[in-house]
Amino acid sequence: MNWITNFVRPRINSMLGRRDIPENLWIKDPESGEMVFHKDLESNQYVIPSSGHHMKISARERLKFFFDNGEYEPLENPKVFVDPLKFRDEKRYIDRLKDARTKTGLEDAILNAAGAVEGLPIIATVQDFAFMGGSLGMAAGEAIVHGFETALVMKRPLVLFAASGGARMQEGILSLMQLPRTTVGVDRLKEAGLPYIVVLTNPTTGGVTASYAMLGDVHIAEPGALIGFAGPRVIEQTIREKLPDGFQRAEYLMEHGMVDMVVSRLELRATIARLLKILLKTPMPQERGEPEILPPALVDGNARPQA
Is 1 a domain residue? Predict the structure, then answer.
């Protein structure tokens, strides 16, 4: 027994009124190693001020930053049969679901909400990567379809924030069936003439990339986001070649015509609002005699949509 550590130090700390410091008070920048104060990072939408690195955020935080005044109305997702295959690996699938629900406070990986962006009423669908890697299962697929159907009924455009590692392996073929189902939802929205904008966040991979995440009218990616079907390590092992620097990152994909623009999270609201006004043929500020204010992402010629 170390009496200095176990007895003397606690007595001194109690006498001086020392308090434990929360572990998340400072957050380390994965790129530069710089320590950033948590409150400063939160006020900057979890974008590192010095490096511009975009941290992962929860679905609720995403909606709070995106909608006007952070106000929105969550949509209740349809109920589905839980664990239809009675799947078990190192742990029962039903237990993994319980852990994910406790951790995130969500029923599954998808959160739908109705709100407004710069006064434009829209439906937003957000994938939360913290819920089992944002994987697409029956509940998530049903929620996405519900988002499309709600947008059709309310005649609103839909903005989808994709973040996923792909289909949920614990549901087997039932998870893969969600790919065509969500694709039909996209088609129905487009047939109704309603805009569908996709924001690709880090990471967006697997079957999600192979379906609704790449079927938008406009594809926006956050800086540095990993976007692809198979991972770069799998591709390198398959083709036995070294991949280019930045392969499958947002900037690389924009240069090669896979996404339309790379936009900072800080400029997403303004950029999406402007795109929706164009797609919905809403009068622009100059047509109403008001000064036009372009978001920096649209002022920069390199960030314009590909022709």
Answer: no
Whether 41 is in a domain gets the answer yes
| Number of domains making up the chain | 2
Q: Which residues of the chain have pLDDT under 70?
A: 1-24, 284-307
Read off the tokens for 133. 């890697």
Comparing CA positions, the residue from 296, 179, 225, 260 lying closest to residue 57 is 225
Residue 307: per-residue pLDDT: 35
Neighbouring CB atoms inside 10 A of 265's CB total 21
* Same domain, residue pair 121 and 44: no
187 lies in which domain range? Answer: 58-284+291-303
Q: Which residues contact 94 (CB under 8 A, 6 or more apart)?
A: 82, 83
Tell me, what's the pLDDT at 200?
98
pLDDT of residue 302: 44
Say if residues 84 and 75 touch (Cβ distance below 8 Å): no
Q: 115 and 98: one domain?
A: yes
Distance (Å, whole) CA 185 – CA 191: 10
- Nearest to 142, CA basis, from 118, 166, 175: 175
Q: Is 114 helix (H, G, I), strand (E, B) or coil?
A: strand
Task: Tally helices (H) and strands (E) across the chain.
Answer: 13, 9
